[in-house]
Amino acid sequence: MLFTNSQQRARDTVVQMGRLFYSGANIMPDLKLRLFPLIAGPTGSGKSFLVETAARKLDAKYCKVVRGDWIVTGSRAGRPTTFQILDYVATYDRVLLHIDELDKLGSLQGSEWSASIASDVWNVLDLKFQLEEFIRQTTVPGRQPPTVEEMETRIRRLWIVGSGTWQEMFESRRASNSIGFCQSPVTERVDSDVLARSSTVSPELIGRFNGDVLVIDYPTLEETRNLLKSSGISRLARRLGVSIEAEDIDWTQGGMRALETVATRLALLHQQRCPELQSRPEPAALVEESGEAKEPGNRV
After folding, report:
1. Which 3 state secondary structure label does DSSP give 293?
2. Looking at CB atoms within 10 Å, which of 43, 96, 218, 249 has the fewest?
């Protein structure tokens, strides 16, 4: 798979925390381990892909919720999101709940709807659910419903990963240029310490996650050159006589989608010039310099 350095570090940490969480091990029984990771990264930097690949690595069922899809407890619009989460918990032994768009969460002092969402999210992060009401509403005739005690046991196996963009932080730290690359010194790049000092992420939110916020950012110029090569884009561009340079990729315009757009343009051009290759099972664009075929569909 294609990963930048920051993505690889974040994914490795998430997987390690997940393994520790599901193992139930605690070498310091008098202390509660903080094993809910929080990921910060600008739009399109690969947060969801990173968490989903971690879920597959851990053999956990992936469940993602975002603010725009949230149905608050007590709403008449549909089944509350908290109950949908419990549906996963009641069905699967391992559930990775990915709560995205936490930067859009709002606060308990906002509008009634925002405050209701915030209240629900805080309760989920604190593993507080209306279990008796959930059991009552999900009882199926002829099937023995789970007990409150059984659900409480299963909830302790619910692992939560949070993420958000906090876009303004990354934009303010990035050197201003027309293509969006961070060519400034390392001290200008966003890391967990910079994020903590900025107070961009509320202490109330960080308090419910591991304090070492995992930060991923857009690829650097050098990483982009490597991605162009490892994805097969550079090779195909040369074959087609097209100039594609790292400086041409504007990650701020949708993150990985910017690279996918370039790849799509090249694939269409390749198809126009070589229509007889349309039926080939492995696109030539995915063949490395070494001649080894790459698996299609990998993302940064």
Report:
1. strand
2. 43
Q: What is the per-residue pLDDT across 83-136, written as a single tens digit (0 to 9) for each?
A: 999 999 999 999 999 999 998 876 655 677 788 888 999 999 999 999 999 998
> Which sign does the torsion angle of CA 212, 218, 221, 222 carry?
positive
* H runs (alpha helix) in 185-255: 192-198, 203-206, 221-230, 233-240
| Angle, in degrees to the nearest 10, between helices 5-23 and 47-57 | 40
| CA angle (207, 212, 214) in 5-degree steps | 115
Q: Which of 53, 46, 43, 140 is nearest to 90 (CA)?
A: 140
CA atoms of 76 and 60, how far apart (whole Å): 31
* DSSP letter assigned to residue 176: P
Other residues' Cβ atoms within 10 Å of the Cβ of residue 235: 18
Tokens at residue 230, please?
A: 């490892």
3-class SS of residue 63: strand
Task: Give per-residue pLDDT as tens, 161-180.
Answer: 999 988 766 666 554 433 44
List phi, psi (to 5°) of 160: -115, 130
- Delineate the domains of the chain, giving CATH numbers in brackets: 5-215 (3.40.50), 221-286 (no CATH)
Q: Give the predicted TM-score (pTM) of the model.
A: 0.78
The 3-state DSSP class for residue 212 equals coil
